[in-house]
Amino acid sequence: MTETRKTTIAVIGCGRISENAHFPALSQMDNVRIKYACDLILAKAEDKVARYGAEQAITDYQIALNDPEVEAVWVLTPNYAHYTVTMDALRAGKHVFCEKPITVNYALSCEMAEEAKKQGKLLNIGVCNRYHKTVEVLEEMNRNGEFGTIYHVYCSFRAHRSIPGLGGPFTIKEQAGGGVLIDWGIHFLDLILYILGGATLKTVTCDAYSEMAKNIKDYVYTGMWAEETMDLNGINDVEDFITGHIRTDKASISFNGAWAQNLNRGEMFIDFLGDKGGVRMNYGGDFTLYTVKAGQLTEITPKYDIPNMYACEDAAFLKAIYTGEHTKTHIDNILESAKLLDYLYRSAEEKKEIGF
């Protein structure tokens, strides 16, 4: 029996996304050897050694980059560190899987793409929804013309009061790059562009607001992602509400997003409106198709298994290391989404419509 070849990797950043997504997925794969778990807080790295089979806990990621056995690294750090760690890893000759967003702005994202090309290494970005079964099904249906012409897409990513880690890295623009748009919106807008299939961006207009926690110490919340990073004496200079309109050569796109709002109505959905059929996609779940068949209005909610999208994207990256394939989450396929975010933020700052 042929022994499975294991890819030796290092995971840099042992926080929530590593805990909730990548360590559980990677630890179940028989073609991976997790040699290093790295975090500035040693206890977090040691926890991953104890629970997920990583071999060594370290605080200095350069140890992993200097190890010739390490072929690839997972960069799961806060946004602001994506650029530095990824660039160092590429220059050290490693393939890199970097969580979304690519980094805090489009210009630095382009530098990362150029460095990957220069070094001849793969750089994939963790826009995991491209591997969600529902997104894959809808992309194929659109490609096959089942919706006719999609002329408009609307999405809503809104919660009641759930600003993450208020006062900490999530709400410091210099470190995060932005608020709800770069945190949640990137997932929605990227999967929309993916399903539309190569839409060319034309113009954007956007408004951003930071109203709900202007006084950090008075903010009352119903839930808080990354609460352990909250700093009541910290900074909050990112948007908690975003709204905008995007014109492309294929469809117009409008959206509303809120980390926090004075409405206890969470909404996480995307509507695709086509001249033959329309879809309400429940983010992270299934979808319902509305169309006409034999002269009758029909409403169909298909049933299918939804595999773990994180496991799917990690497995695709590992396979690409050997095939050289530029998968659907290769950085070259994600740069347009990063560019879109920059233009939306520019429009909000300049308070005008901006063309590409």
How would you describe the overall organization of this protein?
The protein has helices spanning 16-26, 42-52, 61-65, 79-91, 106-119, 133-143, 173-176, 180-196, 309-323, 335-350; strands at residues 7-12, 32-38, 56-58, 72-75, 95-99, 123-126, 150-158, 201-209, 241-248, 252-258, 267-274, 277-282, 287-293, 296-300, 354-355. With 356 residues, the chain is an alpha/beta fold. Helix 1 links the parallel strand 1 (7-12) and strand 2. Helix 6 packs parallel to helix 8 (180-196). The longest helix is centred in the middle third of the chain and has 17 residues, at 180-196. The mean pLDDT is 96.
User: For the report, how would you describe the main beta sheet?
Assistant: 9 strands, mixed
- Percent of residues in beta strands: 25-35%
Give the oligomer, counting copies of the same chain as homo and different chains as hetero: single chain
Count every helix, treating DSSP H or I runs of 4 or more residues as helices.
Answer: 10
**Morphology:** globular
Q: Unreliable runs, pLDDT <50, ≥5 residues?
A: none
How far do the termini sit from each other? 56 Å
Strand elements, count? 15
The radius of gyration is 21 Å
Mean pLDDT: 96
Strand order of the largest sheet: 14-13-12-11-7-10-9-8-15
> What letter string, H or E per element, gives the SSE order?
EHEHEHEHEHEHEHHEEEEEEEHHE
Helix content: 25-40%
What would you call the structural class? alpha/beta
